[in-house]
Write a structure and sequence with these properties.
The protein is mainly α and 252 residues long. It has ten helices and no strands.
C-alpha cells in the first residue's frame, strides 16, 4: 500500500466512524474507498468489520461519558436474536461466490440510493412499526433478520437497528443510537474473529480504517451530544458515496 492509499483509508475511517456513530450507513465510505483502491468488494465487506469493532467500542464509551445514558439496560432478547442472525449472515458472506456477492451488494446500494433520493425530495418511504413490548416472537424475528443482514453486509444495518429499537422500546433517537452501538459491538466481535480465521481480512487496510473509525466515532459522539444539527448534512455525503461506489462496481 502506498502512503496515499493509507491516508485515504484513514480519512475514510474517520468519516465512517462519525456517520455510523451518529446514525448509520457510514460503512459505505470505508467499503467504497477499499473498492476504489482495488480490493474486491467481498473482501472489503469483511475487512471493514475490524474498523466497525473498534468504532463501536469508542462510540459507546464516548456516548456513555458525554450523555446521561447509564440508566439504559441492554435489551437481551433483541441483542441475542441479532447476534444469532449475524453469525449466520457472516457464514453466508464468507461462502458466497464473488460474483453473487457483487450483485447483492449492488442491489443493496441501489436500494439505498433510491431511499436517499426519495428522502431528500420529501417522499421517503416511512415504516410505522408499533409492536407491543410483550411481543417476544416479533422481537426475535425482527432482530434476527436485522442481524442476518448485518452479518452478511454491514451497509445500512445501523438504520435498521435504530428503527427496530425505537419500534419495540419507545426510546429517543439518542438512547436508541447508544443501544444500537452496543448491539452491533456484541455481534461484531465473533464475526470479525470468524472472518479473520477464514482469511478474509486485509489487515493493513483494516487497521488504517480502524484507527480512523476510532477517532471519528469518539469525536462524533461528543459533537452530536452537544449539537445535533450536524446530522442534517450526513445524507448528502452518504448519497454521493453510494453513487460513486455503484459506478465503481459497474465500471471496474
Amino acid at each position: 500500500m502506498s502512503a496515499i492509499d493509507m491516508g485515504l483509508l484513514f480519512l475514510a475511517g474517520i468519516v465512517t466512524g462519525m456517520v455510523n456513530t451518529i446514525a448509520g450507513s457510514g460503512t459505505i465510505f470505508s467499503l467504497g474507498t477499499m473498492v476504489f483502491l482495488g480490493i474486491p468488494i467481498e473482501i472489503a465487506n469483511t475487512t471493514n468489520r475490524l474498523g466497525v469493532l473498534f468504532q463501536n467500542i469508542a462510540g459507546s464509551l464516548s456516548y456513555r461519558r458525554y450523555d446521561s445514558l447509564s440508566h439504559l439496560r441492554l435489551p437481551y432478547v433483541a441483542a441475542g436474536a441479532t447476534f444469532a442472525g449475524a453469525l449466520l449472515g457472516a457464514y453466508f458472506a464468507a461462502n458466497v461466490s464473488s460474483g453473487t456477492f457483487e450483485l447483492l451488494a449492488l442491489a443493496v446500494i441501489m436500494a439505498l440510493i433510491l431511499q436517499s433520493v426519495l428522502d431528500m425530495r420529501g417522499v421517503a418511504l416511512t415504516f410505522s412499526l408499533n409492536f407491543a413490548s410483550t411481543s417476544t416472537a416479533a422481537e426475535v424475528a425482527v432482530f434476527f433478520l436485522i442481524g442476518l443482514y448485518g452479518g452478511f453486509i454491514q451497509i445500512g444495518v445501523g438504520i435498521l437497528l435504530l428503527l427496530g429499537i425505537r419500534a419495540f422500546f419507545r426510546l429517543s433517537w439518542n438512547e436508541s443510537n447508544y443501544l444500537k452501538l452496543l448491539i452491533v459491538l456484541i455481534y461484531t466481535i465473533p464475526t470479525t474473529v470468524y472472518f479473520a480465521v477464514v482469511g478474509m481480512i486485509r489487515w493493513e487496510a483494516g487497521l488504517f480504517l480502524a484507527l480512523g473509525q476510532i477517532i471519528g466515532a469518539y469525536g462524533a459522539a461528543r459533537i452530536f451530544s452537544l449539537n445535533a444539527k450536524w446530522n442534517a448534512y450526513i445524507p448528502y455525503f452518504v448519497l454521493g458515496m453510494l453513487i460513486l461506489t455503484a459506478l465503481r462496481i459497474l465500471i471496474p
